[in-house]
Write a structure and sequence with these properties.
heterotrimer, A alpha/beta (about 800), B mainly alpha (about 400), C alpha+beta (about 250), A: about 800 residues, alpha/beta, Phosphorylase Kinase, domain 1, Dimethylsulfoxide Reductase, domain 2, seven-stranded mixed beta sheet, 28 helices, about 30% helix, globular, B: about 400 residues, mainly alpha, Formate dehydrogenase/DMSO reductase fold, 15 helices, about 70% helix
């Protein structure tokens, strides 16, 4: 073998060159490149034509218009806001945007379930057929008909035809025990009754206000209709310097609502109403009130003024609230000058009932500056002109039932109070007074987790023979049920969505199934109709409809007959502009046309109802706005003169101050859902790591509090009240008032799926509900607490 | 048992002892393989890396190893291109160490990228502006060069050399070795420079970024200098280590002294350049980006790192190596070389980890990076891999041409 | 790949931090639109993929002077000349700026996962897939068809919903138009924002809303001094927020 250096080099070069010139390596490399881009086990979404269907969100009472995008008409892949819906104008909140995670949620209940073992054991909740499930329930209902009052229903939804059907069923069956989950609306409707003579809810014309003072509301964190509030906030901040809207937040915690306001007035916990009265005092004593309104349209002004001068001078209010008296006076002047100005009431998202006096104090402030029933002020939410159903057919049993006392004892007063006294209900069930509760229905609510001071409620469940849940999800209450009748989710069902809370114009939303229900669920409305038919007597006759849709159509006829109002079918509608009373010609010509158009666009609204004049607005005995409530007196509420006037009652928090030196105050945020459904993964992902870390949630404390307790950022602590103890970590922040411990609500689920289960703790388990002596409403706002390192 | 494979005229330990030694090495390599396997199987989530620390121990190790591997090209350059014949004593070992460093680095790099089967995309879809492309190209090419340089040594094994084709092939390679040495020098010079660019071009990272003159040519030569100032130190260290373990003199002292002296000059030069760079960066570059020098050093990544890198592991070893008396002292020489190598590791660590740990946005938080065992194991295994290759080479290949002469067998 | 040849299209975003209520709808809409995976525990933020990340800011003052704000941060689509920090360093051309639109793309299937771009980006806008993305079985149904799911071991980031640009272009093409109207192409986050705090459009068109807003005295960019030239511009009248946006010595 003879190979010299030249030949050697040539051989190598030739070999390499030859191979490279051939297409082989290039083609092979390219194929390999494409092959190595595969990762075949990642999911690849189904492709196909997409369509968008408009409907209305029902995840909270906000009732936003949404669009659901479908692939091949059957797979929902996206939810966004409906631009032509007047409430949200194309915007959407994080919960609404996460809606599909409920539709496709892993904790959906697919069939009816029956508890075959120990209550609370999820593994023995066994699937049964619908026939069997309805038969079990019908048999039980037939069996207890003579003690019909033992049937109790709790609805999380306060308004709409389905809650009405539940209430109707109980009425026809013979039970007075239909309740809503507690909410600020309970106190508001009472307050409106006492001061204005009708138990309607307030509607705020925020879009036209020049100054907004919020007394503790989470106005951009879920209060009212959340997306509407966010939109309004954006609009306030878009105005030119001249039209600048001033927002003042009165709150103990430095929430987002506080930070995003122009001014944050940090008050001592629970003293918002005292500040409101302090403002009123300044406005009156400086003569800055609306003389026309006060002199002609109000009753009891002098009594009110005297009370204010006696108890609510800036000095006195400063001592209670911890706000400098100069600041109180300045704020009062500003509020009186900025016309129109409006004051908002209700703590947090409005999930606490609160004291009627707090509500009355804030409304008096609105009254003083002439903001009642005026643009940019507060009016009542106009009712939607729905047609009535036929009267409930009462038989012998239900006639008896009408006379039965309610389990919450609300009928102690002369006229039954419109609100639910939920905490009395829980107490009475636990004591079996005045009679035992036999069966509980829970609809669109998860009281076993969401009810503040939840322990007595869970105890009460053990006193009830049968618990029936209508939930679509394995929530904590459903885990404790004996029978589960799963309903379709909000994207799979037909339902009306009433005017959202706090809105100043009437809106009627129609939610419809955007795709085939994923499981064999039955609409609660249809369940009730089926059940009624399987019972004899008045119950069956009270439910004459073949199905829920027929019942709904019957009520909606009223809309078509109204002669005004429109289906929102084009973007950019701003019903608050141009003032109320602008008559809108309907854009439909018959009921069927309205039904079709509503089905397509999802929303009907009306601006024709003008705000009532001061002369006609008040249905009180005096026909005026009553600072001094005569109705309270009439219905049998006893007390001294102060009882009938807006005043501030300092609630003494539960617990021994020596043992529990700090105050625990729960707070709500928009990124943790507090409704009946647990937080979706999309939202939980967005929590900061000082809100949730692993499975630990954080309580917020001030650095000073931390220093006095020897705590550092992130330390694990026990949070202990007289109700019990929870484990959390501490987050040190300037948002927290010294000596107050702030705990987020909405976490600590033991039900639902692995994306939320076990994350954080449930604040509701350790707070103690305080009740108002006069009304029995829960005015809870804080509980004495101690925290220590573990 | 394996005596037929052992070069003629040299003495090696017993096969049994050698096997025991190998067992220890394989133990470490096995641990590394396990770690590496877990990274490939479960993904990089088993590491301590995250979106703040895109780079961590793997990259630090890679960069340090590659810098230390510069001993091969630089010794080759001195030997073949400059013609320092005395370094022929040490050149084979330098090549082996270089080969270990470069192949080891590539193995670690394979773990470091999230999609190892796409590792070759930088050849297929190259972005010519990316420093990393340049580095990958150069490293690959230089690994090939090192393989070619290593090959004749392997073929000189007693049994392989008996095959005429192998003998001929290795002879021919030897003849043209100067070409490869020059190529290697060129490639290595460039990619060592590009490695600095790797960080210098990150203009949104004030800690690493250098601008204008301070990126080209400054950073380029800074990194070349850092590599050639520390690579030969590792070569010296390995030589001393092999001599220590085998209790034999394998290399003439002149060779080591020469290399140490050159290293000393280079380190001194590097330190000068580095201090200038640091000064300009602290007083001009950083303030222009809105960052003060003190913000760059936050516990645990404090100023001690800078002190350790420049004073303890830079100026001190440079003084030792430049003092003829000191560098003739075995202990001081070893101390100097260890410090020199440690300095380069700190430098690469600082540019990788500290760079990423520091908050860039004023509301950022300083993050701390803690590598997991799955990162340590393959990194340590690379050292074991080096020990394995050196052991095998020493036992079966004529790595030290002067061994027979310096250790005559009776 | 060639340098910055700013043409007549330069898509950008203006985010009004004062209008932002911190509701995080943008981030949820983004996750939904772009099939962003989620895990049971997402609290280790340095490994959590959020193309639209919300940064928490506060003024550092004690109670009751404490104020906070949330800063939504999509990919800032840097317009630095000649290259953004990330595309400059990618060894495999997996991320590039389209010089016609100014959009910085990322092709996950080409990405080798070297994370050089992650290291180069000072805004933490780039995320690595530390795990194989997995959805609970029923939730696989809700994956959108326009955006492919990514795989373990690659980087991903906000694309300004570039697939929406494609769809808008296709629609315009079918209607015989060559150019898009303002508002025809809008990313999911901007569309979802209930407070209308985000505006999107062509910065190169001086008549566009974004161009006008970007010249507002309230406007600022994140880390302006680094010269990355982000095409996401923030607005705020709060001095402390401006201060937190850039380092000042």
């Amino acid at each position: 073998m003879k190979l010299d250096r030249r030949a050697f080099v040539k051989l190598i070069a030739g070999g390499v060159g030859g191979t490279l010139l051939s297409p082989l390596p290039w083609k092979l490399a390219d194929d390999t490149a494409i092959w190595s881009q595969n990762w075949f086990w990642r999911p690849s979404p189904e492709r196909g034509g997409t369509t968008a269907v408009k409907t209305v969100c029902q995840l909270c009472p906000g009732g936003c218009g949404i669009r659901v995008r479908l692939v091949n008409g059957k797979k929902a892949v996206n939810i966004d806001g409906n631009p032509s819906h007047p409430v949200n104008q194309g915007g959407i909140c994080p919960l609404g945007a996460s809606g599909l995670q409920y539709l496709y949620g892993p904790s959906r209940i697919e069939t009816p379930l029956k508890q075959t073992g120990q209550r609370g054991d999820v593994t023995t909740l066994k699937p049964i057929s619908w026939d069997e499930a309805l038969e079990i329930l019908a048999t039980k209902l037939r069996g207890m008909r003579q003690k019909a009052r033992g049937l109790v229903c709790v609805s999380g939804k306060r308004q709409g035809t389905v809650p009405e059907l539940f209430a109707r069923f109980l009425h026809a069956y013979g039970s007075p025990n239909y309740f809503s989950m507690p909410a600020a609306a309970d106190a508001e409707s009472l307050g409106m009754l006492f001061s204005q003579g009708q138990s309607k809810l307030p509607g705020y014309d925020l879009e036209n206000a020049k100054m907004i003072v919020s007394f503790g509301t989470s106005y951009i964190e879920g209060w009212g209709a959340p997306a509407r509030m966010l939109l309004a906030y954006g609009n306030w901040r878009s105005k030119s310097k001249r039209d600048r809207v001033r927002v003042v937040q009165v709150e103990t915690r430095g929430s987002l609502s506080a930070s995003k306001a122009d001014d944050w007035v940090a008050v001592a916990p629970g003293t918002e109403a005292a500040l409101a009265l302090g403002l009123a005092q300044v406005i009156i004593s400086e003569g800055r009130y609306d003389r026309d309104f006060v002199n002609q349209y109000s009753h009891g002004f002098d009594e009110f003024r005297r009370l204010l001068q006696r108890n609510y001078t800036p000095e006195k209010v400063a001592a209670v609230t911890g706000v400098e008296k100069e600041k109180i006076s300045a704020l009062a002047r500003e509020f009186a000058q900025a016309k129109p100005a409006v004051a908002l009431s209700g703590w947090g998202q409005g999930r606490m009932q609160g004291s009627i006096y707090d509500f009355l104090a804030v409304q008096s402030l609105n009254a003083l500056v002439g903001s009642l029933h005026k643009p940019g002020g507060v009016t009542t939410t106009p009712s939607v002109p729905l047609a009535a159903w036929p009267e409930v057919v009462l038989d012998a049993v239900s006639l008896e039932g009408e006379k039965e006392p309610r389990l919450d004892g609300a009928s102690e007063f002369q006229a039954p109070l419109p609100a639910s006294l939920f905490y009395n209900l829980v107490k009475n069930i636990n004591q079996g007074k005045p009679y035992p509760a036999q069966m509980l229905w829970v609809y669109e609510a998860n009281p076993a987790h969401d009810l503040a001071d939840v322990k007595p409620f869970i105890e009460a469940l053990s006193k009830i023979e049968t618990v029936v849940s209508f939930s679509s999800f394995m929530d904590e209450t459903t885990q404790l049920a004996d029978l589960v009748l799963p309903g379709p989710t909000h994207l799979e069902r037909l339902e009306d969505v009433p005017t959202p809370p706090g809105l100043q114009y009437p809106v009627f939303g129609l939610s419809k199934p955007v795709l085939m229900p994923r499981f064999a669920t039955i609409h609660p409305g249809d369940i009730l109709i089926k059940l009624a038919k399987s019972l004899s007597g008045g119950v069956a006759s009270s439910f004459p409809w073949s199905d829920y849709e027929t019942a709904l159509r019957q009520r909606m006829k009223g809309l078509a007959e109204r002669g005004s109002g429109r289906v929102a079918d084009e973007p950019g509608v701003e019903p608050w502009k141009g003032g109320q009373g602008s008559n809108l010609a309907p854009n439909y010509d018959s009921f069927d046309d309205l039904w079709d158009k509503l089905g397509e666009h999802g929303c009907w609204y009306d601006t024709s109802a003008a705000m009532p004049s001061w002369g006609s607005a008040f249905k009180t005995p005096s026909g005026k706005f009553e600072f001094y409530s005569q109705i309270m007196r009439q219905i049998g509420i006893r007390g001294n003169d102060i009882t009938y006037l807006p005043h501030f009652e300092q609630v003494e928090p539960a617990g021994d101050p020596n043992e529990y030196p700090l105050l625990l105050v729960p707070y709500e945020t928009l990124i943790i859902n507090n409704g009946p459904v647990a937080n979706p993964p999309f939202m939980t992902k967005m929590l900061f790591d000082f809100e949730l870390k692993g499975n630990d949630c954080f309580v917020e404390i001030n650095a000073k509090t931390a220093a006095s307790l020897g705590l550092k950022e992130g330390d694990r602590v026990a949070v202990e009240t007289e109700r019990g103890s929870l484990k959390a970590r501490v987050h040190l922040t300037g948002a927290a008032r010294p000596d107050v411990v702030f705990i987020p609500t909405g976490l600590g689920h033991s039900g639902f799926d692995s994306y939320i289960k076990g994350k954080g703790v449930n604040a509701n388990a350790i707070v103690v509900a305080q009740q108002d002596k006069v009304t029995g409403l829960a005015t809870w706002w804080g509980t004495r607490v101690k925290i220590y390192k573990v | 048992m394996d005596s037929a494979l052992i070069p003629e005229g040299v003495k090696r330990c017993s096969f049994k002892a050698f096997c025991l030694w190998l067992l220890v090495i394989f133990g470490v390599i096995g641990w590394g393989l396990l770690g590496g396997f877990l990274v490939l199987w479960k993904g990089l989530n088993v590491t301590g890396l995250n979106d703040y620390f895109g780079f961590g121990l793997y990259i630090t190790a890679d960069l340090a190893i590659i810098a230390l591997g510069a001993g091969a090209f630089f010794t080759g350059f001195l030997t073949y291109v400059i013609g320092k014949k005395e370094l022929k004593d040490i050149i084979n070992l330098a090549v082996v160490v270089g080969f270990i460093c470069y192949t080891g680095a590539q193995l670690v790099l394979l773990l470091e990228i999230g999609q190892p089967i796409r590792g070759w995309f930088s050849f297929w879809h190259p972005n010519v502006h990316s420093m990393l492309t340049e580095v990958i190209f150069c490293i690959t090419c230089y690994t090939i060069v090192l393989t070619i340089e290593f090959l004749p040594l392997i073929l000189e094994n007693r049994q392989l050399d008996k095959v005429p084709e192998f003998h001929f092939f290795s002879h021919n390679l030897h003849e043209i070795m100067v070409v490869f040495a020059a190529t290697g020098t060129f490639l290595s010079f460039f990619h060592q420079g590009s490695l600095g660019g790797l960080y210098g071009v990150m203009f949104a990272r004030p800690f690493a970024f250098r601008e204008g003159f301070f990126i080209w040519p400054w950073t380029f030569f800074l990194f070349v200098a850092s590599a050639i100032a520390s690579g030969p130190a590792l070569t010296i260290l390995v030589t001393m280590m092999v001599q220590g373990i085998t209790r034999k003199k394998l290399v003439r002292r002149e060779a080591i002294s020469l290399l140490a002296k050159v290293t000393g000059y280079l380190l001194a030069f590097y330190m000068l350049v580095k201090i200038l760079d640091t000064w300009w960066w602290a007083t001009h570059t950083a303030p222009n980006m809105g960052v003060s020098f003190s913000e760059f050093f936050q516990a645990p990544y404090g100023l001690w790192l800078l002190f350790a890198e420049i004073v303890v592991c830079g100026i001190i070893p440079a003084i030792i190596l430049l003092t003829p008396k000191a560098r003739e002292d075995e202990v001081l020489l070893i101390v100097a070389c260890v410090l020199d190598c440690a300095g380069i590791v700190i430098n690469r660590f600082v540019f990788t980890v500290q760079n990423l740990a520091l908050p860039v946005m004023p509301f950022d938080r300083l993050e701390i990076y803690v590598p997991t065992w799955q990162e340590w194991a393959p990194t340590v295994a690379v050292i074991a891999y080096g020990a394995l290759l050196i052991s095998l080479s020493y036992r079966y290949l004529p790595v030290f041409p002067r061994e027979r002469e310096l250790n005559p067998i009776d | 790949m060639s340098g910055n040849k700013s043409g007549k299209l330069r898509y950008g975003m203006v985010i009004d931090v004062d209008k932002c209520t911190g509701c995080m709808t943008c981030a949820v809409a983004c996750q939904q639109e772009n099939n962003i995976p989620f895990r049971e525990d997402e609290t280790k933020k340095v490994r959590s993929i959020t193309w639209m990340e919300i940064f928490y800011l506060d003024n550092g003052q004690p109670y009751p002077d404490h104020r906070k704000a949330y800063l939504p941060r999509p990919c800032l689509q840097c317009d630095a000349d000649p290259y953004p920090p990330c595309t400059f360093v990618c060894p495999v051309n997996a991320t590039q700026r389209d010089e016609e639109t100014g959009l910085v793309s990322h092709i996950p299937v080409r990405c080798i996962g070297c994370r050089y771009c992650i290291s180069a980006c000072s805004y933490h806008a780039r995320y690595f897939n530390w795990w194989d993305p997995k959805w609970p079985k029923p939730m696989e149904e809700m994956l959108t068809p326009e955006v492919s799911t990514r795989m373990r071991g690659v980087v991903e980031k906000c694309t300004f919903c570039v697939h929406r640009l494609q769809l808008a272009k296709e629609k315009a093409f079918l209607e015989g138009r060559r150019e898009l109207e303002e508002g025809e192409y809008v990313p999911a986050c901007v569309e979802a924002c209930p407070a209308k705090a985000m505006t999107f459009g062509n910065l190169a068109d001086s008549h566009s809303e974004v161009a006008k807003l970007s010249k507002s005295p309230k406007a600022f960019r994140l880390l302006e001094k680094l010269g990355t030239k982000p095409k996401v511009i923030y607005l705020s009248s709060q001095e402390w927020i401006h201060k937190l946006a850039d380092n000042v010595v």
